[in-house]
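Memo to structure team: turn this sequence into structure tokens by end of day. - J.P.
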Amino acid sequence: MSTSGLVTGSERWVPTSGGHELHVRQVPPQGGAAPGVLFLPGLFSDGGFFLSSAGRGPATVFVERGFTAYVASLRGHGRSRWPRRRAYDWNFDTYVRHDIPDLIRGWPRATRGRCSCWRTA
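Reply from structure team:
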């Protein structure tokens, strides 16, 4: 698979608590709709760890093998959007209690409920 196909995936933002919107980049395989894998970065990185803007990273292996990659960035990271009142008022518990559940609830219906998650520590 060419990396140019990876870079052209779609992106969207999933609303979560405190007015934040979490960035998710969706990259399907060449065949179209497929089971998905949600990639969650660790505390000090963003979705670029799994899939860079140049189309490189661990997510490419999954896409090349027929999975759709959903590469997320948690609040305060990457292209995730801040609320109007920009405050650093979250911690690890906020990710666990709000961001990750909201990402899973926002899972696209195209996957028909099939979900796998891969994260970094």
